[in-house]
Write a structure and sequence with these properties.
2 copies of one chain form a homodimer. Chain A is mainly alpha-helical. Chain A folds into 2 domains: about 45 residues, Homeodomain-like (Arc Repressor Mutant, subunit A), CATH 1.10.10; about 150 residues, Orthogonal Bundle (Tetracycline Repressor, domain 2). The first copy, chain A, is built from 10 helices and no strands. The interface between A and B is medium-sized, with 33 and 33 residues.
Chain lengths: ~210, ~210
């Protein structure tokens, strides 16, 4: 399971663009997409509005760049988790653990990306929804494979997949660093609960 | 299990106040608390800003009234669910069903109430947090009682309580009427998954 919090969200963006994206993320998280102005974002980035427009022509374009980065990073976390595990139980445990921990570590990013989906332009929203569907498919495929191999037992694989994704995403709503929970403690906890949902008890889950 | 969608959210508020609360809820859901102005809300309610101020002195006061109504209604739904059931399995099934269905039915209200908590004044936030803790206690008490009676088996009652609340609340993020899911289908689905988490399989859950 990957525990690094330093994965690079912004890809090949240069230093100026990164400063703007970070400022936009902070502003959207604090005041919502509609409550944050490009002027606020420029001020927070220590730039003029025209310097911001040189990188991102509209506020929506900033939200799109943030949404794309967030969804790609969450999908990559899931794919990395699976790459290191072989058994059905080990793979699902790693997947739930890392998906949950990702949403705790990136709680501010995840909130913006999830809650402001309605503010994206239609073509941008479609692209983000394709990434979401890909993540959903990865989760469902693991559950279905585990049922086929006899490792899991459930009459509702779609429901379990929905619960895995929903539990992970919702961590970003209430998680605060320095509290009772950590990304790793939440990841372990939800992995154990999901394996129980799949009829795999704690002992066999540990052994698997 | 209660399936009525007509429970009265606004209590003893008069017709003018109701119209303002409904308009504020719609505006907060569409543009976020910071993105919606009192002027927008007055226009949506078909009133002058001064008429709105006569009922609610500030925008924060509107959010507080909406948050109080939402949290009271969700807690009442949970308490009504329990009032009709006797067995541990029956009670938990009804609780999860009705809490989940409440968040589907009142998805717009639940989103505002959950996502804008940070915008409340400290004393208002404290009052809302007390209502949340009361709801959390009701859920945890049911799980602990079911473990004590031998109906449930889990090493992590706090984790299951957290999952019950989180799965319910998160429905409000993605639920849309007219789609694949209904409040009742989601309620049934999550109740079955939670009972599986508690080591109660589908057949005994139905019989219980």
């Amino acid at each position: 399971m990957t525990t690094s919090a330093t994965d690079d969200l912004w890809g090949e963006a240069g230093p100026g663009s990164r400063r703007i994206l970070e400022a936009a993320l902070t502003a959207f998280a604090a005041r919502g997409y509609h409550g944050a102005s490009t002027r606020d974002i420029a001020a927070a980035a220590g730039m003029s509005p025209s310097a911001v427009y040189a990188h991102h022509r509209t506020k929506e374009d900033l939200l799109y760049a943030i949404s794309l980065a967030g969804h790609r990073s969450a999908l990559a976390a899931v794919e990395r988790a699976l790459a290191e595990e072989v058994t059905a139980v080990g793979r699902l445990r790693a997947l739930v653990h890392d998906y949950t921990a990702w949403h705790a570590r990136h709680h501010q990013l995840a909130r913006v990306v999830q809650y402001e989906l309605g503010a994206l332009a239609p073509d941008h929203r479609d692209e983000i929804l394709r990434l979401r569907r890909r993540t959903e498919e990865v989760v469902l495929d693991e559950i279905v494979a585990g049922i086929a191999s006899g490792a899991f037992r459930t009459e509702d694989p779609d429901g379990v997949a929905l619960a895995v994704l929903s539990l992970g995403v919702d961590v970003s709503r209430w998680y605060a660093p320095g509290g009772h929970h950590t990304p790793v403690s939440l990841g372990r906890r939800y992995a154990t609960l999901v394996l129980a949902m799949l009829g795999t008890d704690h002992r066999s889950a540990t052994a698997g």
